[in-house]
Amino acid sequence: MIVGISPFATDMYIPALPAIARDLGASTAQVQLSLTAFLVSFAVGQIVIGPISDGTGRRRILLGGTAVFALASLACAIAPDATTLVVARVAQGLGGAAGSVAARAMVGDTTTGVVRSRLFATLAAINAVGPVVAPLVGGVVLSVSSWRATFVVLAVLGVALTAAAAARLPETLVDPEPGTGSLSASLRRMGALLAMPRFRWYLVTGCAATIGFFSYIATSSFVFQEQYGFGEGLYTLVFASNASCMIASTLVFRRLVGRIAENRLFTIGLVTCTTGSALVLVGAVSGIGPALIWPALALVTAGWGWVIPGSITLTQALGHRSPGTAAALAGGLQFGLGGAATPLAGALGGTATVMGGLMLGFIAAGLVVQLLASSRRGAGAGARTGTGGGTGTGTGGA
Questions:
Q1: CA-derived radius of gyration, the chain
Q2: DSSP-derived 3-state class of residue 257
Q3: What residues pair up with 257 in beta bridges, in sequence order?
Q4: Would the pTM of this model clear 0.90, i.e. be above it?
Q5: Closest CA to 269 of 256, 285, 284
Q6: Does domain 2-396 have CATH number 1.20.1250.20?
Q7: Is the separation of the CB atoms in 10 and 35 below 8 Å?
């Protein structure tokens, strides 16, 4: 739940973006900036805090993060203007980053082999499903209250998670080496991971694909509601169908981990997302509109249910000796670059054509990088990455 709360908070309020703009007297770009602010702070927080947790421990960082998240969510709920909302979202992202990166590192501390791989796949599935399911919950909240209530819900969840973590989660990093919590030691751990070619390739692929996917997350509410005239309820239904596809695909991914190479599953997911993005662009340019764009987006989200779990499990396996640092680099850079690019679609007009073009361009770029990297590794090396047998994902990846 701690890992999932930040992706959930990313866009629980997405269906209300037009209403927030009207209520706060802000432009579309200003309101989208609140999404960007959260994603960038969530990314930077992970990059800074993750390596520190490898040297100082997980529990205090996790508890402090969830508490900050709860307080910042309350600040969002009472924000009187767009500027205050953006600042509160920055704090919310930093708190969520601390909790999320420490929680993922706890899994790395306490598990190995296929068990670790499947647990990371589960956490990755939650990460993938959260941003898609969140607008459904947000739509339900909006049906009975205003957009401010969505942040009240997040504040209550933050308080509950802080209390539960304090009662149930012990420290999992036992006897860290002296000096490993210093900035220089953290930078050395990051440098060691970035020196691994395979780790770098997975980072580049995941970042490019995430930028494309977040173009959909940030723009779809305006496309469906303002360009195509969908109401909030019908737009919620769009997300419901997409969420169903993603949930199903992530469950399939988890069952296949240990049987089929994670690298191969990752590639298949990218191919699926690229195909769906191309169909989105065709639907927008041809004038077919939602009749094609809606099912095409379902195809994209189904593929994304393999892309994100694949990216996280592969990078965590390669960085199993420093799980906090690996989680920071993978999660931080993907969310950071994805968040930084969210205003791009709005600045270019926020139309279905812009959304489809950005999705296709970035996700296809990620696919090309993945295919080139796989060909350089060779078929044999690619097939061994993350295959079944228990330790292939962890020790082989190192």
A1: 20
A2: strand
A3: 260
A4: no
A5: 256
A6: yes
A7: yes
